[in-house]
């Protein structure tokens, strides 16, 4: 990924992932509910990759492109070679990398002072090496399925 998080950036990232696999392979991508993960650009890319000739409609007006719900339904279609599975909203704890990002934030980023993106990158890489060497262990989920009560 790059310095920005636009829908074009994400689509380019997905394009690079897909290009790394043989055309016969099915690719399932797990993503969160971020709007760029359900974008017009992404739908157009997946339509092209999967050789879908049907009209996509018009964003905000009709068809697959009408809204995020219709775009998400298209992107989740199990008949496509490339499809998405979305984590539920407000459930970042289901995504293991989010747990690790929390550790990174608390231990390095929250109180850090970085003079450049290069310094930030080097400090993150050093933290990763330290974490893997000294702290890494399997995450143990403790939630046992009891419903939350207001």
TrEMBL record:
UniProt KW keywords: Endonuclease, Hydrolase, Nuclease
The record, for Gene3D superfamilies, names:
Ribonuclease H-like superfamily/Ribonuclease H
Keyword Nuclease attached: yes
GO MF annotations, alphabetized: endonuclease activity; nucleic acid binding
Q: Which Pfam families match?
A: DDE_3
Output the superkingdom of the source species: Bacteria
Q: Which residues form the Tc1-like transposase DDE domain?
A: 3-121
Q: What is this protein called?
A: DDE superfamily endonuclease
> What is the organism of origin for this protein?
Candidatus Kentrum sp. UNK
């Amino acid at each position: 990924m790059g310095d920005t998080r636009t829908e074009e950036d994400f689509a380019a990232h997905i394009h690079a992932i897909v290009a790394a696999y043989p055309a016969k392979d099915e690719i399932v991508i797990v993503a969160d509910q971020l709007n760029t993960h359900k974008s017009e650009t992404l739908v157009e890319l997946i339509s092209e990759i999967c050789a879908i000739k049907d009209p996509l409609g018009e964003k905000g007006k009709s068809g697959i492109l009408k809204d995020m719900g219709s775009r998400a339904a298209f992107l989740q279609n199990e008949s496509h070679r490339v499809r998405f599975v979305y984590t539920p909203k407000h459930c970042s704890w289901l995504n293991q990398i989010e747990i690790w990002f929390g550790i990174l934030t608390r231990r390095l980023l929250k109180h850090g002072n970085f003079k450049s993106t290069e310094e930030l990158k080097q400090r993150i890489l050093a933290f990763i090496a330290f974490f893997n060497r000294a702290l890494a262990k399997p995450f143990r989920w403790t939630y046992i399925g009891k419903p939350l009560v207001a």
